[in-house]
Write a structure and sequence with these properties.
CATH class: Alpha Beta
Distance between the termini: 42 Å
Strand order of the largest sheet: 3-2-1-4-5-7-6
Structural class: alpha/beta
Order of helices and strands: HHEHEHEEHEHEE
Bound molecules: S-adenosylmethionine
CATH superfamily: Vaccinia Virus protein VP39
Number of strands: 7
Number of domains: 1
Helix content: 25-40%
Strand content: 25-35%
Radius of gyration: 16 Å
CATH topology: Rossmann fold
Shape: globular
């Protein structure tokens, strides 16, 4: 674990230009709550956490890389945005039940924490989860992401994790090309799903 995070630290030290937010987060922003308490799980440099803070969310951003978290905090200050950062190894115990209006996960897969993530949603709260899938043959471009299948989703896997939620959007192996208006192959899966609100 320590070595893995040291590799992330080295990667983040080498990043010169601050990354831009995930296009799909912006594209599907209207499926998310208008505001509230949001968590970016394994945020890295936190371009998406910054986007959510700019959108009016009260954002917590968690990652084990101290380099990423330090850079994110500085970047937030430079942009006059407020967010709460936490450098920690994310385990199920890190999550409190019914706390967040939005939990956002991008390019990170730890199956052990998924039940705790879902429990941490408030009733009506939304999960946005997007990461790499195991089937990389569908993509014509160079495949990105982890080489180990253990860190990539099986077909329909995200959907199966969301059985207790109301699924608003599920894309498995496709992305929408905004320019052409057509679906294109992509070795990622995306789910946006809400926790039912009994009220
Ligand atoms: C592929 S990056 C994704 C970062 C960001 N979500 C994005 O899409 O740009 C994976 C991140 O997970 C973090 N990470 C890996 N294992 C972790 C753990 N057990 N606890 C907390 N963060 C972890 C790494 O430090 C790294 O920033």
């Amino acid at each position: 674990m320590k070595e893995k995070i040291q590799r992330w630290d080295t990667t983040y030290e080498a990043v010169l230009d601050y990354p831009v937010p995930n296009n799909d987060l912006i594209r599907y922003r209207d499926l998310l709550p208008k505001h509230g308490l949001a968590l970016d799980v394994a945020c890295g440099l936190g371009a998406d956490a910054l986007y959510l803070a700019d959108q009016g969310f009260d954002v917590s951003a968690w990652d084990a890389s101290i380099v990423a978290i330090t850079r994110l905090q500085k970047e937030a200050e430079a942009r006059a945005l407020s967010l709460t950062t936490n450098c920690l190894e994310i385990t199920p115990e890190a999550f409190t039940k019914a706390r967040f209006d939005l939990v956002y996960v991008h390019r990170y897969l730890d199956r052990d924490i998924i039940p705790a993530i879902i429990q941490s949603l408030k009733p009506g709260g939304v999960l946005f989860y997007q990461t790499f899938i195991q089937n990389t043959t569908i993509e014509n471009q160079t495949t990105t992401g982890p080489t180990s299948k253990a860190y990539r989703l099986a077909p329909n896997e995200l959907l199966s994790h969301c059985q207790a939620l109301d699924v608003k959007l599920f894309l498995d192996g496709f992305t929408l090309n905004i320019k052409t208006g057509r679906l294109e192959p992509r070795a990622q899966s995306l789910v946006v799903a809400a926790k039912p609100d009994p009220l």
